[in-house]
Design brief:
Blueprint: H1 3-34, H2 39-62, H3 70-99, H4 103-127
Helix pairs in contact: 1-2, 1-4, 2-3, 3-4
């Protein structure tokens, strides 16, 4: 892949991450604040919804890997997203309970951490290789 394509892919993946994160946060907050669902369950559901948005945008737009069979990508994505979900939800719980801070602050901290460290690399090198 040439440098221009790599930069474009990186920028698109960041836009995808923002869109998926927005979806995640919106669902989490609606479930917690309007429906009164426990913040950990709300967080997990929000993350799942964000993961669906992320897969579709990464496959068709960011990495443009829609020429490959989606089944294999979907299986790898489920594995990567499952790991991300466990790390994210555990991190939100740990930060909220350990430091007695609001769940939304924990969620922001974990979203930034995961986005900058784990998710981009997993999706680029494992899922959409």
């Amino acid at each position: 892949m040439n440098p221009t394509a790599t930069q474009s892919s990186w920028l698109r993946s960041q836009a995808t991450a923002l869109t998926a994160t927005g979806t995640d946060f919106l669902v989490t907050i609606l479930l917690k604040e309007l429906a009164g669902i426990w913040y950990v369950a709300s967080n997990a559901t929000g993350a799942l919804c964000g993961a669906v948005v992320s897969f579709l945008l990464l496959r068709h737009w960011a990495f443009q890997r829609h020429d490959q069979r989606w089944h294999g990508q979907a299986v790898r994505y489920v594995i990567a997203s499952g790991l991300s979900l466990v790390l994210n939800t555990s991190g939100v719980w740990m930060l909220t309970e350990t430091f007695d801070i609001q769940y939304i602050v924990s969620k922001v901290a974990m979203a930034v951490f995961m986005g900058l460290t784990v998710n981009f690399l997993m999706f680029k090198h494992f899922v959409f290789r």
